[in-house]
Amino acid sequence: MTEVLRERMSEQLLAQQEAYPQLTGTDLRYLPARLGGTAPTPEEAASRDHHDMTRTVDTFNRGKQA
């Protein structure tokens, strides 16, 4: 039963993904790479978040005086 449900849900998901309008340009950031987009994987996003939360130098204000 679980396998049948998984298969049906996968088929429906694929059909919806194929029916969705083609995204281009900056909209590709919302699509995962496996669908032709540039969105990071969950692991890449977590790594980037960790880097941002633990950085010690504010790269946006480097060299500027307060």
TrEMBL record:
Residues 32-66 are annotated as: Disordered. Residues 56-66 have a biased composition (Polar residues). Residues 45-55 have a biased composition (Basic and acidic residues). It comes from the Bacteria. This is Uncharacterized protein. The lineage of its organism: Bacteria, Bacillati, Actinomycetota, Actinomycetes, Micrococcales.
